Amino acid sequence: MKFKIITAFVFFFTVSVFSIQAQETKTIKGIVQNANGSPLPGAVISVKETNQTVNINSEGTFEIRINRKNSITLVCTYLGFKTTQKQINLNEDAIENLILVMEENSNALEEVIITANKRESKLQKTPISVSAISSKEIQQRKMIDMTDLVMTVPNLITMSGGSPSLNAMSIRGIITFSTDPSIGVNIDGVPMFDGYATSMQLQDIERIEVLRGPQGTLYGRNALGGVINILTKQPDNTFKGFAEVGIGKFNMQEYRAGISSPLIKDKLFASVNGFYNTRKGAYKNEYTNSDFDDYKNYGGNFYLKYLATDRLSFVLNSKLEKNDINGTFPYSQNAAYAFENPYRINQNGRNIENRTLSTTSLFAKYQMDKWELTSLTAFNYLDDVYRDYDYDYSPYDFSYWNAPVRPQGTWTQEFKIASQNLGRWDITGGLFGFSDNRKAETYTSYGNDAVSMYPNAPYTLSTFSEQNGKGFAAFAHITYALSDKWKLTGGIRYDYDEKELTLHDEYIKAPNPTQIFPAKTVGTSDNAISPKINLAYLAAEDITMYANYAKGFRPGGVNQYASATSNYLSFAPEYTDNYEIGIKTEWLQRRLRANFAAFYTYWKDQQQSLMVPEIRIVNVGEMYSRGLELEITALPFKNLQINYNLGVVNTKYDKLLLLNEDNTDNVDYKGNKQIFTPDFSSALSVTYSGNLTKDISFFIVPEWKYLGKQYMTYYNDLVQDPFSLLNANAGIKYKKYELKFWAKNITDSRYISYVYANYRGNNSPVLLGLPTTYGLSAKVNF
């Protein structure tokens, strides 16, 4: 049956593509400038009749190919300028040297262009729930890692798990603690398959897009709850660079620098940047009377862009991040101890973590008259190792974990075809494949103080494992304009995924092994069809309404760190059904933007990472999540921008199988609420910026976030009361020099950032969010 469905859809997709008659293609070239003749890089040009959109490059020029024979209307938008329209007769007007002049108007919101649907489109005309964070916002609001996103997006939770390598993320109650995340993170189009690969430093970022709700049709695996797209800046014809140094609380030091330049004008471009961050511990270890969570983060990014012809281009991108941490995961033994002794722990392990993460990709694009063909090949390498990790978080000689070998290598390949101006049709389709290999060598040691629970102590249990996975997918996403106001979108994706795990356990009791388990191999294979349907209505030029249904899928897998004798060596796939309605509006000549969405999601066969009686991923239950979201952006007067968002989420488990109090049998905790999911959240930021003189500019950005009641364990016996976070950022710029000040958690709120959610509340290890931190940085641009 599935084969018939796929065959029928492929036939429909092929017929749709080739039944559209060819039209003559013409190329429009020009420049966008202000009244003084200065170019306006970053402005946006769109064709009113087709919604085709391009960004103005750093020299203020643009080029757009059009498949029409008569007249069109070009619409140009740019923050601080009035929207400009120009009608063009393609048969009579000169279209290769256009000059568009824009008048200043500081009371209009910037037109935002996103790539959420794997093609450029306007944020306000894209009929899904998506938030976009610009490069300017990232810099002004001191966003340096994934946890900073919690301040900006409704119903998004990103909290530190105690290491730069681990973040707990949740969108609309869809949360993951497993190595295969349920929220996809894509960096320059490359999917990060592992949860420990999602903490890339936000260095030289062009834009961040947060898509809420299942995005499986276009993004596939790990997009069950949504997708976070991180896009870095690309080099162009402008020579530019920067150097920045910063200091802060806990002896924090930050060093960043970068340069971008054309190597051959209009042909070959390169950029390189790097960072080095270090900080003394915010935590104090009472056992050693010393700082505990000291860290060093360093890495960089290299870009090489080559325009081979007018139609063919290549981009080579390589990123590297390394983390060296003494005192990773500074958990207190329980919540009571954490709040009575904030930022103090008492344990005898060093908790050393060394992590290397690198991603290298090659992107190729071929531009035809009506189609764009792309290929994205990538290799992602992750090695996250641990030494002397105190597994009991106490001063007793009980249990330790060492993982000296954990390399992972992942190849991904995507081929995509996207239409360009096919009248009523927008068509995107492609193929995706991957190969994923992971090895692990771990040692769990039980010391003298563990004899009461483990009579054979002291001893060490060593585990050697290798996991191999592969899969492929085919997808199509087709939009048809039923009329000038109505658009219907249908999408479908077929995914196939398989994994194989080989385990070899040795039970060691010094000085010789007393028992050896033979190698054991287990495998899984899953496939699924993920459909999507969307109906959009353009009620007015600045009002878009939509209704959406999407099905999410995450494949099953194997538990790489389980014992060969475990009953939990594999787990089944999980699925979500998501229903959503929304409206996107702009008012008062684009001085006010208000977007609203309501959603209902049902999550079946939910996968979660559990810790007792052993580390494993299991299918624990079924739950629903329903709620509302509101995003408002306003420019009440010149130089002042206000951003506000609100999120409401109600969750309930229809089935939740957990161990009972003596860990002997499963009990259904039906009716419990989802963890790490505030029932209400609200955020407000105010940006005041302007010019003091011709050469001096400034900005001030206070921001506030309120997070409502949260249940922190699956048993719902550890509750986090509502709390607020208050940040402030300010800066001044003189010509090419900048000075910035920032402060986070100014009110010194005490809150739980991370907890072992499958433990009972009175004995679950707990990590508090960081206390008040602040710093100062100086930057020079050239």
Blueprint (SSEs and pairs):
Elements: H1 2-18, E1 26-34, E2 44-47, E3 52-55, E4 61-66, E5 71-77, E6 84-89, E7 98-102, E8 113-114, E9 121-122, E10 130-134, H2 135-140, E11 156-163, E12 166-171, E13 174-176, E14 183-187, E15 190-191, E16 205-212, H3 216-219, E17 226-232, E18 240-248, E19 252-264, E20 268-279, E21 284-285, E22 290-291, E23 294-307, E24 312-326, H4 335-340, E25 344-345, E26 352-367, E27 371-390, E28 399-405, E29 407-419, E30 425-446, E31 459-481, E32 486-509, E33 512-516, E34 520-540, E35 543-554, E36 557-558, E37 570-571, E38 574-587, E39 592-610, E40 616-637, E41 640-659, E42 666-668, E43 680-691, E44 696-707, E45 710-711, E46 719-720, E47 723-734, E48 737-744, E49 752-755, E50 766-768, E51 773-781
Parallel strand pairs: 1-7, 14-17, 21-25
Antiparallel strand pairs: 1-4, 2-3, 2-5, 5-6, 8-9, 10-16, 11-12, 12-13, 14-15, 16-17, 18-19, 18-51, 19-20, 20-23, 21-22, 23-24, 24-26, 26-27, 27-28, 27-29, 28-30, 29-30, 30-31, 31-32, 32-33, 32-34, 34-35, 35-38, 36-37, 38-39, 39-40, 40-41, 41-42, 41-43, 43-44, 44-47, 45-46, 47-48, 48-51, 49-50
